[in-house]
Amino acid sequence: MSPRPDHFWESKTLEELSDQEWELLCDGCGLCCLQKLEDEDTGELFYTRIACRMLDGGTARCRDYNNRLESVPDCINMRPLTDEKRRWLPASCAYRRIAEGRGLAKWHPLISGKADSVAAAGRSVAGKTVAESEVPLYQWPDYVIDLDELVASLHRAKRA
Ligand code: SF4
Known about the structure:
29% helix; alpha+beta; binds iron/sulfur cluster; four-stranded mixed beta sheet; 8 helices
């Protein structure tokens, strides 16, 4: 692939993107596919290292993206990206970055022109997750992680 010279994400709102453009914006990091816990009292979200059962832990890609909403009923269709849905995405997510006027990161494939630039930048959860089937629900709190620390650790692992 090569960088997108038209920078379509800068001239359109998220609502104006075609379906193909919308899908191109996803960098495939897999962070949104980590299971989360929500504090019922405060609404605070906590990320875990546990991957959604549909996530391929080796590639950080959904095993059946087109049918994911049928397979996992609580998977959220992010389109349209409302404020309520946006809070479920990590700050590094391309959709959040665009919605918040922060532009795409330099490691985004649309900028780098390289399909593997997300992994090369240490931004992919590939190989870093625990399978949902291996962790009973009552143990999920033991797998809560600080998302900023996880991203930092992904960086460190990549540089080592
Ligand atoms: S966090 Fe955002 S960019 Fe990363 S896989 Fe999920 S939707 Fe795509």
